Amino acid sequence: MAILIGLLIIAIGAFCQSSSYVPINKIKKWSWESYWLVQGIFAWLVFPLLGALMAVPSGESLFAMFAAHPKESLLTILFGVLWGVGGLTFGLSMRYLGVALGQSIALGLCAGLGTILTPIFTGNTSDLTMPVIVGVVVTIVGIAIIGMAGGRKSREAGEGAKEAVKDFNFGKGLMVAVLSGLMSACFAIGLGFGSVLTWSESPEIFATLPATMLVALGGFFTNAAYCLYQNSRNKTFGDYADGRLWLRNIGFCALAGLLWYSQFFGLSLGKGFLGGSPVLIAFSWCILMSLDIVFSNVWGIILKEWKGCSKKTIAILVGGLAVLILSTFLPQLL
């Protein structure tokens, strides 16, 4: 029962993350770089800090703990900076491919690479058990099937796709999504290095939140630098000056940031219930990313991003999603 509760919590977090780009579509008259920076303040600074504070026992200090582990803290931030590149290109993959296909490709690569590379980088190769490896392989198969559906979509959807995704470009979007997936895996690696950044007295469900905060902080540095550069280049600093839009746009940015952060808050809570299954603990990153993909495609269907596609293409998409759902439970069954 505890394992089912843990998986359900992770699933709720994944649903929130896949929904985070919906409020962004409600933002008015701001350039991409402006709303991406503002939502990032909430997603990568405000909510991660609030989450990390929940792990701090009475009488302890969050920043004193970081100072006591300088090497691990710096490595966690460094991989967060690298993940920030993935975060930037992740947003662009949504722009060119839409919520469904963009998240599927980027998060699919992120799922597999994050699960495999984290124990290799941190030296915990004992986590790479056969059930975990099989689960990753099945996840990648599911992503490949969804990618096949995406290729058919680019040929079939025509104007229907362009209506739902104004800048739809499968070739450019594919390259961006692949880069995003490669760099986004650094988030998992950062969490691996930051696994010591906690206290024995902390509730197990909050144990990974301090490390999550540092990875997100590193990602904020990368994204903020790029967005401010684009503000300067495109002369869009005026976006922040229009007080008539502040309440609406900042509100939707805050909601997007909260929904995005919920995936890692849910991952931490969910892992607290998976203690009886070391395999699922090692595979939890892949579970989160796979569920992110499933729910993002549900949103893609709701937002009519697959409008104009044939029944065969939709069947291929559903088949890929079914494989991803299977991969979530498969390691525990082996």
What report would you give on this structure?
The chain has helices at residues 2-18, 21-24, 32-53, 62-68, 70-122, 130-156, 159-164, 170-184, 186-193, 209-234, 246-271, 278-302, 311-333. The protein is mainly α. Helix 3 (32-53) crosses helix 11, helix 5 crosses helix 12 and helix 6 packs antiparallel against helix 13 (311-333).
In the predicted model, the low-confidence regions spanning at least 5 consecutive residues are none
Task: Report Rg.
Answer: 19 Å
Largest sheet: none
Write down the secondary-structure element order. HHHHHHHHHHHHH
State the helical fraction: over 70%
* Distance from first to last alpha carbon: 18 Å
What's the rounded overall pLDDT mean? 85
Structural class determined from secondary elements: mainly alpha
Shape: globular
Please report the total strand number as a whole number. Answer: 0
Count of helices? 13
Quaternary organisation: single chain
**Percent strand:** under 5%
Topology of this protein?
Elements: H1 2-18, H2 21-24, H3 32-53, H4 62-68, H5 70-122, H6 130-156, H7 159-164, H8 170-184, H9 186-193, H10 209-234, H11 246-271, H12 278-302, H13 311-333
Helix pairs in contact: 1-11, 1-12, 3-10, 3-11, 5-6, 5-8, 5-9, 5-10, 5-12, 6-12, 6-13, 9-10, 12-13
Descriptive labels:
334 residues; 13 helices
Short description:
78% of the residues lie in helices and 0% in strands. It is built from 13 helices and no strands.
